Amino acid sequence: MEIKRGAPVSPGVAIGPALVLDTEGFRIPRRSVKSDQVKGELDRLRTALAASAASARLNQEAVSAKLGQQYGAIFGAHALLVEDAALARELETLVREQNVSAEYAVSRVMRRHAKALESIDSDGLATRAADLFDIEKSILGHLLGQRREQLADLQEPVVILAHDLTPSDTAGLDQEKVHAFATEAGGRASHTAIMAGVLEIPAVVGLGKFVTDVSGGDTVIVDGNRGVLILNPDEETLERYRRAQSTFRSFENTLVHLRDLPAATKDGTRVQLLGNIEFPSEVAHCQERGAEGVGLYRTEFLYVGKDTDPTEAEHLDAYLTVLRTLGSNKPVVIRTLDLGADKFASTADASAEERNPFLGVRSVRLCLRNLTLFKTQMRAILRASAFGDVRIMFPMVSTLLELRQCKMILAEVKEDLEEEGIAFNRDIPVGTMIEVPSAALMADQMAREVEFFSIGTNDLIQYTLAADRTNEAVASLYSPGDPAVLRLIDSVVKVACERGIAVNVCGEMSGEPTYTMLLLGLGIRQLSITPHNVPEIKKLIRSITMEEAVQAAREVMRLETARDVNNYLREQTRRVLPEVVS
Ligand code: PEP
Ligand code: MG
Questions:
Q1: Whose CA is nearest to atom 1 of ligand 1?
Q2: Most buried of 137, 294, 298, 482 (most Cβ within 10 A)?
Q3: For 101-120, how does the pLDDT look when each residue is reduced to its tens digit (9 = 90+)?
Q4: What are phi and psi of 28, to 5 degrees?
C-alpha cells in the first residue's frame, strides 16, 4: 500500500481499478488473458520488441548522421537492451506464467528495473532509469499502435490516474464510467480542477510523481475530501474507506432539505448564493442545489473544439437556454470570453506562441484586439438581456483604460442594435472582475465605472503571490488565506460598500467552507460557487451568527501568515460544523 497526498479539488471518495495514463496519454493496462490467448500475446510481444529495436536502430543512424556517433550510440544501447535475450525471457515468463497481456508484462518489468535504478543515489543511474521508461514507451507504442487512450470511450468503470489532464480532456470524461481521477500535476484552481467540480467527479491533483509506481487494473482509492490517493490499499484501509464513502453520502443527503431554505445566518443576515457554470446544462445543478441564480457563466466552452468561433446565433441560443431553464427573474451574470493561459485554445488564441501566456494576450486583452469576436458576443449578451435579468461582466481587467474601452465597445454595440431595431436592456448592469492586483488597488476608480465587482480569487491569488495556479510545485504559496490576498479582498469590499456597488466572490475560495465565515465577516453578502458546494455553504451560513463571522474576520486580519489564517479558520469552522472540515 502506498499513500500520496495532493490538493483535494472535487469532493467524494471512489474505490476502483486504475486506468493509468503515462505522460503522453498512453494507457498502461492490466489485462489478464485466457490460457488459449497466451500464445497470441507472446507473438505480439515478440513483434513489438523487434519493431522497437528496429526503430531504435533507425534513430541511431539518424542521430549519428546529424550529431555524431557518440550521440547515436545512446539509441544503439536502447536497441541492444530491447534485443537482450534475458529481457525477452523475463517478459515471456510473466506472460506465460501469470496469463497477463504483453502490455502489462512490458510495463511491469521495465518499471521494476527503472525503479530499482532510481532508488540508487547516482546521477548516471537516474539517466539509465529514464532510458528504461523511454524504451517502455517505445515498446508500448508498438503494442498499442501509437494510439492514445480515448477517455470518452470507456467500456468499464475506472479511476483515472494520469500525469495531467487538460481541461478539455476533463470536460469530455464520461461521469458514468470515470468514478474519480488523480493527477501528478495541476493546482487547486486550475481549470482541470474546476471542471472536476463541475462534473462532480471526485478528484485530487498535484500529487507529484506516482504514475510509474502503479499499473493498470491495480485497486486504488481517491479521497477527494482530503486530497489523498492510496495505491493498492490493504483490506483494513479498504473497509475504512467504504465506511467513509457511505458517511459522505449520508452527509450529502442531510443537505437535500436545505434547497428551498434561505442562506441566512442564525441572527438573520441574508446571503445570496449563486452558481458558477460552464455549460447551459449546469443550470439544472444550480436549481437542484438551491442556487438563486448564476453569478458566473464562463463562456469559454462555446469556443472549445471548434474550427471557427461561435456565431452570434450560437451565443444567443446558449444564453437563452440558460434563461429559459433558470426562469427570467433570476440573475445571470455572463462573463465575456476569458480564453488564454491554462484555458482552452480557440482560433483566436494567441497564447500558443507566447512565452508566458498567464501574463500575455488572454481574456479582455484578446477581445480588445479582436473586436469582431468581442462585438459578436456582446450583441448576443445584449439580445439575451431582453428576455431576463442578464448582466455582463468583463474578466482580467487590469487597468481603468481597459475597462473604459470595454464599456465604449459595449456602447457602440448598443447603438448598432438600436439602429437595427433589435430589443435589448439599455440599462444592462455592467460589472468587472477584480482578479488582478492592479484592479484591486484601483478599485475606488473602477467602482465609478461599473454596477458590480466580482472578486476572482483564483487569478487574484496567482497574480498576487506570483504562483501559477496550475503548478503543484508552488501549491504551498498558492493559498486563499494568504494575508496579502486578504488585504486586497478586504480593501475591495470596503470600496464597494462605500460606493454602494454590489460585490461578490466567485473564485474557488467562495465554495470552500473554511473561508465562509471570513468572507461574511469582511462584508461579503453574495457568493458565486460551484453548484455542488451550495448546500454545504448554506448549511454553514445557517450555523453561524454575523457576530461570530465579524469577530473571526477581525482576528484573521491580525494574523501574519497563511498557515496561521488557515489553521484558525479551520478551527472556527470545525467548532460550528465539523463535517465540512477535512
Ligand atoms: C477567478 O479567477 O477566480 C475566476 C473565477 O475566473 P477563472 O477561474 O475562470 O479564471
Ligand atoms: Mg480568472
A1: 456
A2: 294
A3: 898 888 889 888 888 887 77
A4: -105, 100
